[in-house]
Amino acid sequence: MNSENSFITEDSSLHLERGQEDTTTSPHFAKHHEGSLQVPIPCAVLNVVFITILIITLIALSVGQYNCPGQSMFPMPSDSPVSSCSDDWVGYQRKCYLIFTSTGNWNSAQNACYELGATLAVIDSEKDMNFLKQYVGQTEHWIGLKKEAGQTWKWSNGKEFNNWFNLTGSENCAFLNSTEINNKECENKLHWICSKPSK
C-alpha cells in the first residue's frame, strides 16, 4: 500500500473518531436531524398501527351499544318494579294512585275518580295503607270505603270490607291521614285519593 492510500485511510478513520457522521446509515433508524429524537422505524409503525386498531375497536363498541336495543351497559334487575301509571299517578303494589288537592264530599270525589277510570282508593293491605299514610301527611283524604244505612261497610269497587283494620266512629264515609283511617259525615269537604290497577 503506498503512502498516499495510507493517508486517505487514516484521514477517514480520524473523521469517524471525532464524531462525524458516517455516510452509511442503519436500515432500522431514521436519519438523525438536529433537535429530533431518533426513533426506530419499526416501533413507530407498530405504535401507529396499535393506536389505529384501538380507535377502531372503541368506535365499534360504542356503535354496537346503540345498535343493540334492550342490551344496556347497566341492565335493570328482573324483579325491579316498573311503574305503568300515567303522569301524576303514583305507582305502588300493582296499583296507581292519584292524590287530589281539591276538596269535595264523598260522592263528588267518587264521581271524579269514575271520570278517570278509577274509584276512590281501595286499600287491600297494610303495606298499601302505610304507603298512603306517608304520602298524604296530616291532611284527611276520602278513601273508597262507605256504609249505606243499615248495611255493612263496602269498598267503592263493590267488595265487602272484612274488618282487617278497626274503624271507629258512627259516620258513613271513611277517610285516611298519616295517623289513622276513620269516618266522617259523607257531606264533609275533604281531599281524596283515587286508585286503579296498574297496566
TrEMBL record:
Domain of life, per lineage: Eukaryota
One of the GO BP terms on file: negative regulation of T-helper 17 cell lineage commitment
Gene Ontology CC, one term: protein-containing complex
Transmembrane segments: 39-63
Region of interest (Disordered), ranges: 1-31
Location relative to the cell: Cell membrane
Polar residues bias: start-end ranges: 1-11
Compositionally biased intervals (Basic and acidic residues): 12-21
Keywords, sorted A to Z: Lectin, Membrane, Signal-anchor, Transmembrane, Transmembrane helix
Membrane disposition: Single-pass type II membrane protein
Protein name: Early activation antigen CD69
